[in-house]
Amino acid sequence: MTADREVPAPQRTVRAAGCVLWRPLPAGGVEIALVHRPKYDDWSHPKGKLEAGETALECAVREVREETGMHCLPGPSLPTSWYRVAEHPKEVRYWAARATDGTFTPNREVDRLLWLPPPAAKQRLTREDDRPLVDALLTAIAPGRTGAA
After folding, report:
1. Would you list the domain boundaries of the chain?
2. 105 burial class (0-12, 13-18, 19+ CB within 10 angstroms)?
């Protein structure tokens, strides 16, 4: 007689999207927006889970608006992040996005917004895996490339 074994269910990938939000500085260069999420006490790029019927890009733009109060113009896609959350794999697709206008209002999901130069943004990001997105953004918006300032 054999004991019944519990077979793990296939793991559903959590799909999310976000933007590396940036704005040009009058004297040249850019600043990058980072959000602080009190639930996790972390600093990250604005991102969130896809809603039913929503494309990844629609989600990314919505999450920027909800978490930062900013409207944005999405540009080139950036590298996708893969990691585990609880017991599920998570895929986060990213785009470069230039902030156009808006006003940040703290809420229960995001209590702080910082605009930082790229080196400071890389240091402030909590997850090591989020840091290469800063370099990817700078490459994507370099003069002469699509999405450049």
Report:
1. 14-140
2. exposed
Q: What is the pLDDT of residues 65-93, one digit of tens each?
A: 999 999 999 999 999 999 887 888 999 99
Q: What predicted TM-score, i.e. pTM, was given to this entire model?
A: 0.88
Residues 6+ apart with CB under 8 A from 22: 30, 31, 32, 33, 96, 97, 98, 99, 137, 141
d(CA 39, CA 19): 20
pLDDT tens digits, one per residue of 120-134? 999 999 999 999 999
- The span from the CA of 123 to the CA of 21, in Å, is 16
Residue pair 63/51 in contact by the 8 Å Cβ criterion:
no
Rounded Cα gap, residues 126 and 82, in angstroms: 16
Backbone angles phi, psi at 65, to 5 degrees: -65, -45
Closest of 137, 92, 95 to residue 118, by C-alpha = 137
Q: According to CATH, what is the number of the domain 14-140?
A: 3.90.79.10
If we measure between CA atoms, which residue out of 96, 93, 92, 95 comes closest to residue 23?
A: 96
